[in-house]
Amino acid sequence: MLLLLRDLARGLDYHAIVHALRATPRSLISISILFTALSYLALIARDDCALAYIGAKVATAPLILASCCASALGNAIGFGPLSGESVRDRVYGAAGLRPEEIDRMMLFIEIGFGLGVVAFIAVSAMLADGALASMLAMSTASMRTLAATLLLMTTGLLVLGIRHHQPLAIAGFAIAMPRPRIALIQLILTGCDLVAAGLALHILLVPSAVDFFSFAAIFTAAIALGAISRVPGGLGIFETVIYFGLARYVPHNQLAAALLIYRGVYFILPLMFAAAALAAFELRRDAVRGEIGTRSILPGVDLLAPTFLSVVTFAIGVMLIVSGATPAVDWRLAALQGMLPLWAVEISHLLATLAGVFLLFVSRGLHHRLDGAWWLALLLALINVGFSLTKGLAFGETAAILFLLFLLLATRRQFTRPAAFLRQPFTLGWFLAIAAVIAAATGIMLFAFRDVAYRREIWWQFEFDAQASRALRALLGASIFALGISLWQLLRAASGRVEAPSPKQLAAATSIIRAQERSAAMLALMGDKSFLFSRSGKSFLMYAKRGRSWVALFDPVGPNGEWSELVWRFVELADAHSGRAAFYQVRPDSLPVYLDAGLRVVKVGEEACLPLAEFSLEGSHRYGLRQTIRRAQREALEFEILSPQRVCREQDALAHISDAWLGAHGGHERRFSVAAYEPGFIAAQSVAIARQHGRPVAFVSFMTTDPQTEATVGLMRQIPDAPPYAIEFTITQLALELRARNCQMLSLGMAPLAGLIRTPLSSRWHRMAGLVWELGGPIYNFQGLRSFKNKFHPLWEPRYLAASGTIGPFITLADVATLASGVIRRSSAA
Fold first, then answer.
1. Could you tell me if residue 18 is inside a domain?
2. Residue 671 pLDDT > 50
3. pLDDT digits (tens, 9 = 90+) for 276-314
4. Interatomic CA distance for residues 346 and 344, integer angstroms
5. In whole angstroms, what is the distance from residue 42 CA to residue 709 CA?
6. Which of 264, 297, 330 is the last residue of a domain?
């Protein structure tokens, strides 16, 4: 790619491109903007069509927000947490769609786009004149025959799938065919998007010797190759394909100018518009904070403003660096010569470029909502308003910085995380992105000053018209500055380490757990997990480490307002150790917090929740439980609940039951996400015990907090010669007793991989997990566990894993399995 770009640059002249940019009529740019708007309207309609395909309904405002923001961000950046898919996850998730529904929707859009691109190229080639055939070194008849064949194959594939209602398999993916009307609408909308996007560039090339359909085929191929390359925005790929396709028909410098304008109109302008719209919404919400419905109109908007501000800040940093590498307008520099001394121009030029580098680093802190990064960005923007004017009266640059100031001030309330941005761990990808910016700016400088003779003396030329010298010094300073920050980040000592909780931490965690309702948080007191407390000390999360996986169990414990801070700090802690952060068994209502942190979410199972207000032994569906109670009464089984004080006195009997159960089931305790028999841990709980003829034969421990509105089953154990229904009897009696005590919910724990149905629309993870569910019996009794809990007819609530990285969730699950199956050293009984 670099060699191709170097060859392209040989036929271009920087000053001629600048002249072509200024000579482009404003009316053509306005028409190009209009076509861009039409393209985005087609994208909104495409999302609406995909929602109809999955049978979901989303209000108009979230639909427009998700589609426009996702398209703007995906077109301009398009990777990792800054991708269009991530935006849709956040907005549609906040609007009520489940992650698997969003995955199905995205798969439908992507396959529809791929088939639409193929069909559009084929149609364009059939309608094109001899220009396209000449480019492909084919006869017009051969080209049209090939295009018609391609179109017939695509159409036949769709018709065959729709007619027989069979899934369409492409590159390992399977997608159930939609109704003919939805499939046709999706293809038409893809065509409208491509036509409008193509016209936005084609209008800038008028007059051109190539017809529109030949241009459309080349344009669509460039879009497809840019998407396949996974290069952010297809930058370089798209321009290279267009240049080689049209270089014989459009003057080179005019073509380069048109591509630059198109990049600004179609890629940058929608990004800025989306960022401005989000900032305007923030201002409106601050002005009408008490107005009902301000949040519900646009669910998920809170999650997007920092992301877009981060991208805009990075773009402004790139602009400042490139501006420092290119010559200023001659008449503006001449005007400055009569107003300012040379040293002021030189210093402004250097410091503005260094500020651009600093903004590249600060933008990551903005993405993570750091208040320190916000203040630094505000300070740099204010300073650069002056620098942009004193270095060369760069009015456009000044306007962009003022726009950044507006975004910063409008979104101030989003940046409340008290941390310095330089303490934020930077990934290798971020360093590579900054290095690529510096390298690209260097290439632009060499291109802009290609006629300058580079000698040793050029570094020390200080004159108003010595712009090449000024650019060289600025880029050298920027490179050294970027390298210095990078080395400081890479060589700094890693913070934090995994340690067992101290007695003081356990006491603090106990007081926090007792003050909230989620009883499963009592698993923190097993002592096998480390703690990360909030800055206020009112909340914490529990976690363990396996390999490179840093796995937090459940959502944070404590006030919901502090969850975001804890999640971000845990992600940073894992990053600081080059690890992957993960949160296991999180609830659906907390997913926006993890999506906001750039984590990927997958479903890992379902938790059996028994509403006790509705629980009784009446009704035909409770027949099995009634039979269990009758059999227990015939065989002299008795039920009793031991208070924590009595548990201490019964430790020997409970330990005997537990040891006998372990001997029959593998010989060692599980840990992390499940309870283990630790005398200190058991002594802090209540225990439901079953006795036969006075002898303890089974017990079920359960965890509660001070409100006692919710209970969670911990251990379920029985001796080998106990009646086989002893545990079922004990849980049934426990549920009835807790109901009498006005407890509202009894959790029976999670059934791993439950509810992950394999369908043609399922993701790869769902299909793989479904296969393990069906065939993994010899490894773990997945289906048996769910069947046992299903006897009580609970409500099944989904539980998720949120993890960083593309394949991070899958590796993390293996590490979680290892954590859960490890050996626990039991302390001696008190």
1. no
2. yes
3. 888 877 777 665 544 444 444 455 566 677 888 888 898
4. 6
5. 50
6. 297
What is the average pLDDT value for the chain, to the nearest integer? 79
Is the distance from CB of 478 to CB of 438 less than 8 angstroms?
A: yes
Residues 486 and 507 in one domain: no
> What would the pLDDT profile of 188-223 be if each residue is shown by its tens digit?
999 999 999 999 999 998 766 677 888 888 888 888
Give the separation between CA 285 and CA 308, rounded to whole angstroms.
18
Q: What is the pLDDT of residues 515-544, one digit of tens each?
A: 888 888 888 888 888 899 988 888 999 998
The radius of gyration computed from the CA coordinates of the chain, to the nearest angstrom, equals: 32
Query: 595 in a domain, yes or no?
Result: no
| Mean pLDDT lowest among 49-53, 764-768, 799-803 | 764-768
pTM comes to 0.65
**Pairing mode, strands 695-704 and 710-718:** antiparallel
Query: In whole angstroms, what is the distance from residue 541 CA to residue 543 CA?
Result: 7
- Torsion angle defined by CA atoms of residues 135, 140, 145 and 148, in that order, rounded to the nearest 10 degrees: 70
Q: Residues 279, 343: one domain?
A: no
What pLDDT digit, counting tens, does each position of 47-58 carry?
999 898 888 888
Domain count, the chain: 4
**On the CB side of 26, how many CA atoms lie within 13 Å of its CA?**
0
42/591 Cα distance (integer angstroms): 29
Q: Smallest Cα–Cα separation from 489: which of 550, 576, 549?
A: 576
Largest CA distance in the chain: 107
Q: Are residues 569 and 624 in the same domain?
A: no
CA 310, CA 411: separation in Å to the nearest integer?
A: 11
Token pair 């990004």 is at which residue? 271
Q: What is the pLDDT of residues 338-388, one digit of tens each?
A: 788 888 888 888 888 888 888 888 888 888 777 788 888 999 999 988 888
Could you tell me what percentage of the chain is helix, strand and coil, using 3-state DSSP and rounding each to the nearest 5?
65, 10, 25
Please, which residues bridge with residue 801 across strands? 584, 602
Bridge-based pairing state of the strands 173-175 and 549-557 = unpaired
What confidence category does residue 825 fall into, taking pLDDT thresholds of 50, 70 and 90? very low
| 239 and 130, same domain (yes or no) | yes
141-173 exposure pattern, b = at least 16 Cβ within 10 A, e = fewer: eebbeebeebbeebeeebeebbeeeeebeeeeb
Mean pLDDT across the stretch 731-757? 84
d(CA 513, CA 536): 15
**What pLDDT, in 10s, does the model give residues 108-149?**
888 888 888 888 888 888 888 766 766 676 777 777 888 888
Residue-range definition of the domain harbouring residue 709 = 609-820
Distance from C-alpha of 217 to C-alpha of 221, rounded to nearest angstrom: 6
**828, part of any domain:** no
Residue 806: per-residue pLDDT: 63
Q: Give the SS3 label for residue 136.
A: coil
Q: Which of 232, 464, 430, 220 minimizes the C-alpha distance to 330? A: 464
Mark whether 484 and 509 lie in a shared domain: no
Structure tokens at 27: 């009316």
Closest Cα to residue 274, out of 43, 49, 598, 601?
43
Residue 508 lies in a domain: yes
325 and 255 assigned to the same domain: no
Q: For position 769, which CATH number holds?
A: 3.40.630.30
Nearest to 112 by CA among 44, 208, 31, 47: 47
What is the per-residue DSSP string for 55-108? T----HHHHHHHHHHHHHHHHHT-SGGGSHHHHHHHHHHHTT--HHHHHHHHHH
Pick the last residue of a domain from 468, 491, 514. Answer: 491
- Whether residue 510 is found in the same domain as residue 652: no
CB atoms closer than 10 angstroms to residue 182: 17
Shared-domain flag, residues 546 and 695: no
User: What count of residues does the chain have?
Assistant: 830
Q: Are the C-beta atoms of residues 743 and 609 closer than 8 Å to each other?
A: no
